[in-house]
UniProtKB/TrEMBL annotation:
The active site is at 22 (proton acceptor), 100 (proton donor). It catalyses: 3-dehydroquinate = 3-dehydroshikimate + H2O. GO terms for biological process: amino acid biosynthetic process; aromatic amino acid family biosynthetic process; chorismate biosynthetic process; quinate catabolic process. Belongs to the type-II 3-dehydroquinase family. Its EC number is 4.2.1.10. Catalyzes a trans-dehydration via an enolate intermediate. It comes from Victivallis lenta. Pfam families: DHquinase_II. NCBIfam families: aroQ, PRK05395.1-2, PRK05395.1-3, PRK05395.1-4. Substrate binds at residues 74, 80, 87, 101-102, 111. Pathway: Metabolic intermediate biosynthesis; chorismate biosynthesis; chorismate from D-erythrose 4-phosphate and phosphoenolpyruvate: step 3/7. This is 3-dehydroquinate dehydratase. GO terms for molecular function: 3-dehydroquinate dehydratase activity. The lineage of its organism: Bacteria, Pseudomonadati, Lentisphaerota, Lentisphaeria, Victivallales. Homododecamer.
């Protein structure tokens, strides 16, 4: 089983950017822990981060050719603005879980609406870096139930 992890804009700044909201973990530290978890679950994790909407859309589109079974995605600010990322997720028809470090529902009003959530099988938010592990577990479980590799 192959899982694609996508991180959107500014997430390369984790550990420095607003630690009161996003925590002190860096993105490489989070990805490292997720790789360990993926190995324990028996799946492969491929990670990608970009600040550019088109690059994220391209990466989602390439997922089918690469044998990806599911996607964990933190679209970051694009959650609330990107019809293109939403449409890419819908187009590939791969199960996807949206993930956020903070509880976006408890923040500014503009963060309360996700364009990507309706094309995802679920959303995990508000548990800091643990949100990623919860999302990976949920996606893995869903894929196993669907009879994926």
């Amino acid at each position: 089983m192959k899982i694609l992890l996508i991180n959107g804009p500014n997430l390369q700044l984790l550990g420095v950017r607003e630690p009161g909201i996003y925590g002190n973990d860096t993105l490489p530290a989070i990805v490292s822990r997720l790789r360990t978890l993926a190995e324990e679950l028996g799946c492969e994790l491929v990670d990608f981060q970009s600040n550019h909407e088109g690059a994220i859309v391209d990466r989602i589109g390439a997922a089918l050719e690469e044998g990806v079974d599911g996607i964990v995605i933190n679209p970051a600010a694009y959650t609330h603005t990107s019809v293109a990322i939403r449409d890419a997720i819908a187009a590939v028809k791969l199960p996807a879980v949206e993930v956020h470090l903070s509880n976006v529902q408890a923040r500014e009003e503009f963060r309360n609406h996700s364009l990507t959530a309706p094309v995802c099988i679920g959303v995990v938010a508000g548990f800091g870096a643990d949100s990623y592990g919860l999302a990976l577990h949920a996606l893995f479980s869903c894929l196993k139930k669907r009879g994926q590799k």
